[in-house]
Task: inverse folding
């Protein structure tokens, strides 16, 4: 049993090693996506820092700092989950483009092991990107992580990652069902998930705001 | 070629002469343009252990579809395929461990080097990286590949070199049944000869059975112990080159092909190309 599991892990590692080798060869593109991620997070953070000026009111600097931190967490978490969705969603499309899909399917690697390997590779890439973006952003924007609950953050990201792996797997099958438009459909799914998560965040923040400020509750009619 | 030896699975230790048995295998495809097309039509064939079996046919005759079914990539609509007694549907995982394939396109991660691709391919079959590297170098040397270039991205290698790396990938896992789908298409004459010599050596020195598809009559005759001719998805003739010539009163394999299909091989290829336009 243990030997069999070790064997499957060895097979799964083939995909991790392959993806790392591909990242090295495509280093220029990786740099592009990294800069894109850093710039996106920084842009949002600067907009957050300008909130007092935009709103025209006097806002407590601590509240602005908290607001910016929330925005950064949001953009970096979304980048983390976005990478997972994109990589898993492109598992089939990428290998089709390279022309290697038949060799992967012909090899004695169970589909589940293939997916585990790709999930492992994706988690490595998403984590490396997220840490790099956070590190780069802290060079430009003051971020106070002294009270950060790292364990909770990791657990939340892992739970989110599992959900996005599921969505990614479902989307990965689109190119098999619709050869021409499958990948485009996968990206639409990702955009819809972003919209849904944004609207959920909005309603959660509103509820939290309502609890904190009784005066902002709607008046009874 | 001692470096290519591997421990044989249990199924190969049992007596039996049949490496591949296909019985009434049929595959149809549906498309909006052509409607229902029967790519393989009730093909039955038997390849004995250690044999090189050549499947000769024009483009679109069903060769690649048949090879894809033998390699578990496609499921037959009808009929059965057994590899060393194992059913490709019921024992798919076990069959996959016994086979490997070279297709007409050398399909690789083109940014990765030949060695990175080969080590990755070896890992998929449970071959340790060090063992893969040693085997890969031995095979590539025999195929006449410049060893100094094995760490360059594959996209920088010529089509012939890429195809040789594809052949090395298939041999790396020491397959007991090797499916070669037009392996020398696009190679120059020297490379073609090197590959053909290597294929024969592999069969002579190891316990390998080879199914080779080609539309090169010379290659079919030079390499194959027996030849099957596919036409419109059907196996229309089968035998050794001498048997086929004698049966059809022909002096050349080209005449046999014309006799059983009604067309010369190049004409049949041209007709197939017109159909795809």
Result:
């Amino acid at each position: 049993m243990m030997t069999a599991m070790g064997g499957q892990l060895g097979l799964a590692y083939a995909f991790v090693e392959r993806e790392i080798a591909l990242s090295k060869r495509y280093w220029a593109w990786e740099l592009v996506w990294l800069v894109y991620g850093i710039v996106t997070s920084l842009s949002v953070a600067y907009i957050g820092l300008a909130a007092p000026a935009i709103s025209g009111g006097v806002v407590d600097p601590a509240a602005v700092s908290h607001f910016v931190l929330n925005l950064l967490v949001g953009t970096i978490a979304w980048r983390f989950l976005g990478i997972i969705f994109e990589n898993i969603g492109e598992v089939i499309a990428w290998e089709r483009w390279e022309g290697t899909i038949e060799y992967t399917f012909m090899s004695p690697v169970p589909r589940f092991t293939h997916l585990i390997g790709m999930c492992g590779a994706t988690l490595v890439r998403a984590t490396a990107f997220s840490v790099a973006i956070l590190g780069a952003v802290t060079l430009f924007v003051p971020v106070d992580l002294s009270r950060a609950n790292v364990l909770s953050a990791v657990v939340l990201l892992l739970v989110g990652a599992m959900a996005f792996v599921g969505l990614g797997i479902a989307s990965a099958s689109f190119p098999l069902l619709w050869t021409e438009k499958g990948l485009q459909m996968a990206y639409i799914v990702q955009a819809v998930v972003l919209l849904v998560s944004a609207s959920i965040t909005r309603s959660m923040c509103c509820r939290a705001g309502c609890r904190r400020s009784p005066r902002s509750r709607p008046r009874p009619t | 070629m001692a470096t290519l030896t591997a421990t044989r699975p249990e199924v190969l230790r049992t007596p039996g002469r049949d490496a591949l048995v296909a019985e009434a295998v049929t595959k149809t495809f549906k498309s909006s343009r052509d409607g229902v097309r029967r790519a393989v039509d009730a093909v039955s064939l038997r390849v004995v252990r250690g044999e090189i079996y050549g499947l000769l046919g024009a483009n679109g005759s069903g060769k690649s579809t048949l090879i894809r079914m033998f390699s578990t990539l496609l499921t037959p609509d009808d009929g059965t395929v057994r590899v060393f007694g194992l059913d490709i549907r019921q024992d798919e995982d076990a069959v996959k461990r016994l086979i490997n394939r070279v297709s007409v396109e050398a399909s690789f991660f083109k940014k990765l080097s030949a060695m990175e691709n080969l080590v990755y391919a070896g890992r998929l079959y449970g071959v340790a990286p060090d063992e893969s590297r040693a085997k890969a170098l031995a095979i590539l040397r025999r195929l006449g590949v410049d060893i100094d270039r094995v760490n360059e991205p594959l996209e920088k290698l010529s089509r012939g070199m890429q195809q040789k790396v594809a052949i090395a990938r298939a041999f790396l896992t020491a397959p007991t049944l090797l499916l070669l789908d037009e392996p020398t298409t696009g190679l120059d004459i020297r490379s073609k000869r090197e590959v053909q010599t290597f294929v024969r050596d592999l069969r002579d020195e190891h316990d390998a059975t080879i199914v080779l598809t080609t539309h090169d009559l010379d290659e079919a005759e030079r390499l194959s112990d027996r030849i099957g001719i596919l036409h419109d998805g059907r196996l229309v003739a089968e035998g050794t080159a001498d048997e086929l010539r004698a049966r059809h009163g022909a002096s050349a394999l080209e005449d046999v092909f014309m006799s059983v299909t009604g067309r010369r091989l190049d004409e049949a290829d041209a007709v197939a190309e017109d159909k795809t336009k």
Remarks:
- Confidence is low (pLDDT under 50) at residues 213-221 of chain A.
